[in-house]
Amino acid sequence: MFDRDPAGVRIELRALTKHYPGQAAPAVDNVTLDIPAGELVVFVGPSGCGKTTTMKMINRLVEPTSGEIHIGGQDVLSLHPDELRRHIGYVIQQVGLFPHLTIGENVALVPKLLGWPAARRTERVEELLALVNLDVATFRDRYPRQLSGGQQQRVGVARALAADPPVMLMDEPFGATDPITREHLQTEFAKLQKQLRKTIIFVTHDFEEAIKLGDRIAVLREHSHIAQYDTPANILANPADDYVAGFIGQDATLKRLALLRVEDMPADSPVHDPALPQVTGDASLREALDVMVAHGTDRCSGPQGVLTYAGLCAAVGSAPPGSGTDAAPREGVAAGDR
Ligand SMILES: Nc1ncnc2c1ncn2[C@@H]1O[C@H](COP(=O)(O)OP(=O)(O)OP(=O)(O)O)[C@@H](O)[C@H]1O
User: Which UniProt keywords are listed (predicted)?
Assistant: First the structure.
């Protein structure tokens, strides 16, 4: 099996097609895509374009009509589907926790199927609940209905990671949670993936979520045709066509600022200034801009030095309003764009 290395393996889709019986057109038509080992690739596209069908062919919940799928060089269609699915983590919007099993039992489901001894399962449950920020003593013996939606989603992620699969498929995993919980789960999950480096395919309708989480984004049209497949920064800077630009919306510059970190910027002046509004090194440039706007100033200080509004503009290749020097943000420009 391809999971000897839990750190992620390459996935290759070759001319993958699904034609559901009785349908006039294929749901997925001739899709070829390479997903590099250890990367998180997001499928974004309108409802019905074939995102879920494409994903479900990878763990064979849907059987392809034609084409090939290789995971870690192994031909997926030659494997037994049940056996295959035990080695691929799967997280869905409806979570799918068993209501009559405790949280601990839910998380240990696949390890139990794989025949792990009880002591190893217990240890793994403790490790995983800690990993997704759930207190073991509080949650292990509760039932799913005793958890909030966000907590249940965390359990869903822990369960998918239980057998340390190199591949995870995630279908709108945070889609059913309220916006604040959702943002929190996204931030936690981004940190987790930095550490784990699984190969992940993540389906969403939400372009902001795609930008925040994706190493790469596949923007899909009808029949899963690929409109653009690139890093978030490249898609924001150079959308392939009007269709992709339509997904990005009006505020591409703000989205690009959200991708860049203060610590990755050359400071305009490399001396920390305690008198200015402060930002942390891991804050995004969008957060730095928010701090400037909130304080009505065109500069703030990170640990490595001073950042200016003109510097932020230069980082995303746009000219500051006014003269091109350190002009203060026009009132309403940043805030009104959101
Ligand atoms: N079991 C099925 N039988 C017949 N047609 C199906 C089946 N499942 C999906 N389809 C059709 O295939 C197309 C793609 O569906 P799919 O669920 O893959 O899209 P999606 O992009 O994931 O949509 P959404 O974002 O709304 O979940 C749609 O036209 C859908 O109606």
Answer: ATP-binding, Nucleotide-binding, Repeat, Transport
